[in-house]
């Protein structure tokens, strides 16, 4: 069964910060490209502001920025779900 799932994964070649990566995923290649472009943009924004940083620090700072965005969105989502549940109880 596990092998069947692996056969359904597509391979998408993306370019992030001038490096090529092959991503295997169940997601559509177009989606993988969108995500890769987003990571690339974040890394370039950080590098533009801090042009002396080594690549690994740019990558870590980009990951922290993306994680911060995701956490804030998750917190907002959780708050909205709580409001919906409270409204249903009325």
Features:
90 residues; alpha+beta; two-stranded antiparallel sheet; 70% helix; disordered N terminus
The whole-number mean of residue pLDDT values reads 93
Number of helices: 3
Instruction: Report the end-to-end length measured between terminal Cα atoms.
Output: 46 Å
What's the main sheet like? 2 strands, antiparallel
Question: Care to describe what's here?
Answer:
This protein is α+β, with helices and mostly antiparallel strands. The chain contains three helices and two strands. It has helices at residues 2-8, 29-49, 55-89; strands at 10-16, 19-25. The chain has a two-stranded antiparallel sheet. Strand 1 (10-16) and strand 2 form a beta hairpin. 6% of the residues are buried. The model is unreliable at 1-5 (pLDDT under 50).
Present the secondary structure layout.
Elements lengths: L1 H7 L1 E7 L2 E7 L3 H21 L5 H35 L1
Helix pairs in contact: 2-3
């Amino acid at each position: 069964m596990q092998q069947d799932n692996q056969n359904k994964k597509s391979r998408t070649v993306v370019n992030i910060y001038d490096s090529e990566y092959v991503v295997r995923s169940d997601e559509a290649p177009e989606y993988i490209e969108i995500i890769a472009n987003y990571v690339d943009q974040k890394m370039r924004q950080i590098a533009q502001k801090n042009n002396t940083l080594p690549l690994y620090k740019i990558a870590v700072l980009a990951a922290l920025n993306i994680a911060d965005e995701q956490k804030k969105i998750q917190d907002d989502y959780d708050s909205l779900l709580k409001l919906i549940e409270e409204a249903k109880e009325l």
